[in-house]
Write a structure and sequence with these properties.
The chain is an alpha+beta fold and 317 residues long. It is built from seven helices and 16 strands.
């Protein structure tokens, strides 16, 4: 909400500073600092996977191009690593199609149910399959482990394998150790497929997951069955999402997730947590609009502020 009112007047570096300021303001006593340097990238810069803006050489954020932000915080009780890509104007058909394929891949991994001890390489195709159908790919891993107030990238496991050919994977001792290592209950992992069109735009959607016990119909075998609990209550971009490409169960998943985003985050958007009442109202308006059902054409008025004591947890999702 803050950024939308300043398009054309805020650059990539200033956006980084604002994210840090707001994270410090809302993080409370557990907040320790950023978990890594924020990747704040506009348009063609977003096609550079590990782009880092500098004050003397950074782009202005406008409504003409995509804006990718990869950021995270260190807290006394955990570490976060989150990426969202947005467009504040009217994206092209190619931009919407490519973003939606990335979103489908993100959902594919997030919804996985699997026997405990499954290696990370097995999840990679779940995230890449929607992109592969359109002849798209991304040249980085799909997920990495995360520490708790430790390394934001932490082994021994990871999710990947589809970025290079099999001979290169088997030739890399580090890749074999990482992607053939098992995922067990309690493991925290990122889910971050993307697509990057050199010189034009880039998309990445990244959230934090934790493996927990799943209930299945048959529970076959001696290994426990697991699923991923979704830990990042931040909505996806409505302007970049093309619902015509989504399957019905994907639409239902997104709508249910967005409902939980609103229930979890809206009670925290108060004048005591933000700059003032106007800032809080602007944030609530943005969150309400972005979390409406995908089929809804007209956004209804924002409901009254919710009592923070009645706040739902994203862990209920």
């Amino acid at each position: 909400g803050w950024l939308e009112t300043r398009l054309g007047r805020v650059d990539e570096c200033q956006a980084c500073d604002e994210i840090m300021r707001r994270r410090r303001m809302m993080g409370g006593p557990l907040y320790k600092g950023d978990s890594f340097d924020t990747i704040s990238s506009v348009g063609a810069n977003a096609s550079i996977i590990h782009y880092k803006p500098t004050p003397n050489d950074c782009a202005t954020i406008t409504n003409k191009d995509v804006y990718l932000c990869d950021t995270g915080g260190q807290y006394g009780d955990g570490t976060t690593d989150i990426t969202r890509t947005n467009h504040f104007g009217k994206p092209s058909e190619d931009e919407r199609r490519c973003y939606t394929r990335v979103l489908q891949g993100h959902i594919g991994m997030a919804r996985a149910v699997f026997p405990e001890g499954t290696p990370g390489v097995m999840f990679d195709a779940l995230a890449r399959a929607p992109l592969w159908r359109d002849g798209l790919n991304y040249l980085h891993g799909t997920g990495h482990g995360m520490g708790s107030y430790l390394n934001v990238h932490e082994g021994p496991f990871g999710v990947g394998g589809g970025a290079v050919t099999a001979d290169k994977q088997f030739a890399s001792h580090a890749a074999k150790l990482r992607y053939l290592n098992e995922i067990r209950r309690g493991h925290y992992v990122s889910d971050e497929p993307g697509f990057y069109q050199d010189g034009s735009f880039g998309f990445r959607i990244e959230s934090d997951l934790v493996a927990v016990v799943a209930e299945t119909k048959y529970a076959y075998g001696t290994r426990a069955w697991l699923k991923f609990e979704y830990l990042t209550p931040l909505p996806f971009s409505r302007s970049l999402t093309d619902p015509s490409l989504l399957l019905e169960d994907e639409i239902q998943w997104i709508d249910a997730f967005h409902s939980q985003c609103w229930a979890t985050v809206a009670p925290l958007l108060t004048s005591s947590n933000l700059d003032d009442a106007q800032d809080a109202a602007r944030a609530r308006q943005w969150l309400w609009r972005e979390t409406r059902p995908l089929s809804e054409e007209a956004c209804p008025p924002v409901p009254p502020a919710i009592d923070p004591s009645k706040c739902h947890s994203i862990l209920d999702f």
